[in-house]
Structures are given as structure tokens and as C-alpha cells.
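In practice, a research group might receive sequence data for several interacting partners and want a quick structural hypothesis before committing to experiments. The following worked case mirrors that situation: the sequences arrive first, and a predicted assembly follows.
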Amino acid sequence: MSKHATAPQDETATDTNPDSETDAESTTEATPTQVTNGATAVVRSLENAGVTHAFGVQGGAIMPVYDALWDSSIRHITMAHEQGASHAADAYGVVKGVPGICLATSGPGATNLVTGIADAAMDSDAMLALTGQVPSGMVGSDAFQETDTTGVTAPVTKHNYFASDATTVGKTVGEAFALAEAGRPGPTLVDLPKDVTFGETDDDPGPPKAPARSSPSPDADPDAVIAAAEVISRAERPVCLFGGGVIKADASEQARAFAREYNVPVVTTMPGIGSFPEDDELCLSWAGMHGTGYANMAITHTDCLIAVGTRFDDRLTGGIETFAPEAEVVHIDIDPAEISKNIHADYPLIGDAATVLEQLYDAIDDDPETDAWVEQCTTWKEEYPMDYTTPEDEPVKPEFIVEAFDEATDDDTIVTTGVGQHQMWAAQYWTYTKPRTWVSSHGLGTMGYGLPAAIGARFAADDDQSVICFDGDGSFLMTLQELSVAVRENLDITVAVLNNEYIGMVRQWQDAFFEGRHMASEYNWMPEFDKLAEAFGAKGWRVDEYDEVAAAIEEALAYDGPSVIDFHIDPGANVYPMVASGGANGKFALSEDQL
Amino acid sequence: MSSDEDPTSQRGLQGKPPEQRPHPTGRRNKQGIRIDPEAEAEPRVRKAVVSALVDNEPGVLSRVSGLFSRRQFNIESLTVGPTTVEGNARITLVVEETDPGIDQVKKQLAKLKPVMSVGELENNAVRAELVLLKVHGDEPDKVHAITQMYDGQTLDAGPRTITVQITGDESKIDDAVDAFRQFGIIEIARTGQTALARGDTPTTPGEEPAPEGTIAEEPSQPSANVQYSDD
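A structural hypothesis for the assembly, expressed as C-alpha cells:
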């Protein structure tokens, strides 16, 4: 007997397609789980929270919860590895704007989740992890598959819970769910000892309820708003810096309205990609270590930085001493601890990004005079173009592949990535116009994020949205076992491996800073990813020449199922511009000799 | 194109090299504050007493200490104990940081779910710590005299060792420890500072006084009775 899972290419595969309308309807009409024990209370609590999908891996201590899922409307996707479950849940949440759910058993199951939990914490992604635990009476005895999961995950969660009682465990799960998305989002975890999930109870846990003090006020202090509005009115060279918080707060509309009304050039952070349309004339794309030259010029020369939902990560700021050194900083953030943590905020506005941007929009009486400054930014766009050459007799340039995919797909296509050079090219050469279409691992920089993220994104996306994963050869090799899930679930995703047979970003740094000593970054050999894909039951292509690119992309996109294109790219291609670690953004290098 | 001749720039983008671009003259200090480079002063590190009212749930102390270690906050002491309200505890921390650092300590503490309220104590706050000193017992009369000078108590006296207790603020304890060195200190245990705001001021913002009748019994005083051990 098997629930959900179908053999690859099975006729019934379409019936279990997660995106099909019948599935969605059955979800809303499904009868809620009847609470008989702790495990059913956990599942009922998830149902009460509106959860429709969960990603995980079975195992001894979590078995009661899985058994409760048997009768639930919640669609569980069995992943190949718990790390894949955590990334899939994270990406699902990013695309859908709700907390993603992942499950794992105790011990290694829980520790395998940790990378994905830490990733979610760094990127402020709402996520709830549920882990099995040995029975309470055995905790502390070094029992089989026992790990101090709450201890291990405390530094990488907003908060975690050790469930102690079957009668309250459902409420605890609801609280953890609500806390994950309250205020600044982040991951939470509930550790579930087996005696608690087996323990009898018939209490409906009710709707999720966030704990006290976790939901801050959305409005900023009105006096502070007026002060900030005055400094913006006086500004001659203002820049809006939109971070990932703009997307999390669903504030893209307010961000667009603000920048356009006051004619303020826009720079985004990497997590902020998609918060403002990159095809808008005011948009200078993203700033930081590999951001555009024009974004880094603008952010260096601004006299008024209107930063929204960003934590001023070091990859954005470069050296603190030279970051926006002449700017009065207006900083909008929901988390007071981000105010003046890295960059001093002259005008802190604590609140929800959408709400505060509206407050600020209304409070500005005199429009700043920005025509000359906008003109200057446009000039910088011309002076530092993101152009590249495509000599036919050389290996394919990765930038060309990213642009070819962008041209072949719709605006609402979702892009996921691993971490490394391919991630930077995917961020630089794709024109993002909508929020929640760029799904990547930013703060933690987790290689291997891309494929499981594409799986999670596929379940969250609309049917007509394409999901593309740009991956590096090194990144892909870290989690490619999840291809088995994509095949089993017949997921329409396309993986574009930008294969240079290097850990390319490390190789780039070794060339620049370690005299070209390619210690442990040089493979000179990779498995044949196209054939590996076929072995999994996915469709595979290999591309070596420019004239093969368009056809392979077209065929892969047309194929209704998981597909992998192994692009053998120019192995010496490097990512520019580049701001050396701790260097000045305005001194970005355009080639290696400038580093 | 010139890039064809230059193998390094071939791997790069076009545009003015860094030295040909304009660069602003302003700068920030390490705390991210815009500064006048002419008048830049080293940020001053100061000692602050921070009090946190917390839910006394399992693991709360490890969450607080974990926060301090992973964010590399400089901590001098940490004390914890229950309050008069059932289920609450007060954690008193002495930290040594710059002003922005102390600000971060308070904000990061406040983000922890079990932390209800965080406050920094004024300089005039009431502070105390306790030290237990075990010294050689060769000169009991002199040990007794010095213990009395510091309003201390003898907790244990034997033929070879005497253990005394001194309470007071940090400098008084420091002085007392110095004074006992002449006898040869065998062991020492200090509690770290605990503190309350002076007068009507609540120690952490918004902290309510315990309602009438709920005040728990006075914590029992450490016994002043000298116990004689056989060591």
C-alpha cells in the first residue's frame, strides 16, 4: 500500500501531480485529522495552520507523526536526504510566502536538517522543522539515534521547543508555526519525543497562536517618519536599497510606488532581487561583492540611503569604513536589533516594510531634486556595462546561457541556484521583474541548495510557472540524489548545470589571492550529468557549442518532467565586477589585474 | 578591441579602472558611524550592568549564554535566580562593550523568546556580589578581625582552614580578597554581580511589582553559625 508515491512514468502520475487542480480541491475539502494522540494533534495543528505540503524523511522516532500523516490532507513529499527536505521546505516557503514544513527523525535525521535550518535563519525564511526524539525517559542516556536537537539547533532557530506533553504538543506546534512568520521571519523547531507523540489526547489544538511579544507593531514612530521624510526631501543623491525584507513583507508594490513617485534610483541586495523590476529605468540591479558597477557607484556616492529590510551583510557593504561614506542612512526594518548593528542608522524606522514605506510616502512634502543624480546613474550604466563577448571558437560563456534561458521563458519563471560562480551569473544576467522568482542561498552560502530548492519551489509555484535551477558542477554534486524525488514525483523542473569542472569561485579566488594554486578546487573530471540524469529517469542533454544552446533549452523546457542540461562552459570564466573582501565598493575590479 | 591583446582584461568587463573613478572622501568607523577622520576617537569600552527578566523555562540560561558566546559579547559575570513571581527569573549580566555593543547586547537579548524585558542599570543602582574565601587557619584571630572589618561571616573554621563570606559591591570584594591574601588563599568562589535599580525605578522597563500577598518568603539567609569541621 502506498500513499501519493507513484512509479516514474506511471499513468497515474498526473493524478498525483501536486499542482493539479483536483489535488488542490481535495485539500480544501478534506476532513481534518481526528485527534487521538500527540502525533495526530501535531498533524491537526498543521492542518489548522493551513499547511498543504511537507517535506521530509521517515525514521524511527518520527514514525508516529508519519503514521498520522497517512490520513491527513497534507501532501508529504519524501526526499532523498533530510538536507534536501530542509531546503525544499525553505524554498517552498519563499515562493509561497508561508512557513515551509520539514520533518526528520531523531539523531542523524535532525542533524541533517541543520544546514537547511541555518540557511533559513541567515535568510530570514519562515520554516518549521519537526523532529522525532527518543522517548522522554531515555533522553540523556545516549540512546540509539539520540541527539540533543534543541541544543544543536538553538543558535540557528528563532526559538525551538522540546515537547513534553501529548495534551499540549499540538498547541506547541501551532505556536512554533506562528512564531516562524511573526515579525522578522525565521526557522523554528519542535522536538517530539516518541512517548509524547504516542501519548493519548483528544484536544483539538486550535489555530496557531504566536507567543507574547513576538508580533511587533507594523507602524514606525510618526515623528521618526517625519524626520526621515525631511532628510529625503533635502537629498541630492538619494538611493533606495531594497533588501529581502521588502519581499518578505510583500512590500514590492509600495517600494515601486515610492521610488517612482520621488524619482529615486534603486539598488537591491541579492536577497532583494525581484523586489523592484530590473527592467525599470530607475533600477541599477544589485550591489555588493559581485554587484553591478553602476549599483556600487550609486551606493558609494549617495548622500541619502533609504535602506529597507536589509541587514547590511558584509558581502553587500564591503569594508564598513567605505560603505556609503557620505550618506545619511534611513533604515526601515522590523527587527530593532538590525538597526545600527553593522551600519549606523541616522533615521531608524522600526516597523513593517510595506506599512512604513506608505507612511514615508505620505510624509514627504517636497520632492527631492534628483534629475541630475538619475542622469549620473544612467551614465554609470553606460560606463560599466555588463557586456561580454562570445567568440565562436571558444567554449560557451555562462552569461550567454543565462540570458538564453531568460529569453526562452516567461517573466514569472522561478530561478533557483546553488552557490558559487553560477549563482552570480544567474543573478547578474537574468532580468528579474517579480518578487519570489529568485530563490537562492545568500547568507549561509549553501552549495547544493539549488536542486532541492527547485523541488520545493515546484510544489509552491503555479502550474504555468517554469522552474529553472542554475547549478554549478560542484553544487549539483552535493545534493543530486534529490533528482530521484523529481523523477518519482514527475516534477517539471529544468536543471542547467554550468559545468567548468572546478569549484569555480574558489578557483577564482585562488587565481587572485593564492598565486593560482588550485588546491582542492580543480576536478578536471566530472560525471556525465546528462547520462546520470537519464539513469535517474530524468531527461538529459549535453551542450558544448553555442549552436546547441537554444535547441537544448527549448527541448528541456518543452519536456514535461525533470530535465538536466550539462553545459560545458568556458572553464576560465570568472565573475566580475568583484569587490575584494573588505574592500571599497567603489573600487570594484573589472578584471583580475584590478584586484 | 584592446582586450584581445591583454589576456587578463579579456576575462573581465569594460569600464574605468578603480584609480580613474571618483571616490568620496568621507568614511565610517568600525561601528558603521560616519566620522570626521580628523577628529576620530577610539570607541570607548565601558562596563554595563544589564538586567533581563525571563520566563524561567528549561534551557533559558543556555540560550542566554549561547547568545553571548556566538556573538562574541564580552561578558564579565552572569547571575541568575528566581523572582517573587512564580515562573520568572532575573538574569543580571555585567558586560564590557562599546556603546553600540551594549545596544546590541540589549536588543539581541530582547529577541530571545523567553526574555520578557531587558534594562540597563544606572550608575547609582544597588549592586552586590558574594565571595567565599578559604584561607589557611594558622592565624584564626587575625582572619576573624579582617572578616569583621568587611562585615563578613565565618562559615567554616577548622584546624587547617577557615572559610569566610563577604558581600558587597565589586570594589569592596576586590579589597577584601587583597586583604585575605596575607593568610594564603586556598580557594575562592565569587558569584558575580547582581543588581537592582534604586528607589521606585523598575529594574527592567515595564516590570510590575509583585502584587500584594504574592511576595514569596524571604530567601533564607546563609547560616551565620560557625560550623566546625574536622579537616
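Before designing any experiment, note the following. The CA atoms of residues 48 and 149 of chain B lie 29 Å apart. Chain B touches chain A at residues 3, 8-9, 11-18, 21-34, 58-59, 62-63, 66, 70, 100, 103-104, 107-108, 110-113, 116 (CB under 8 Å).
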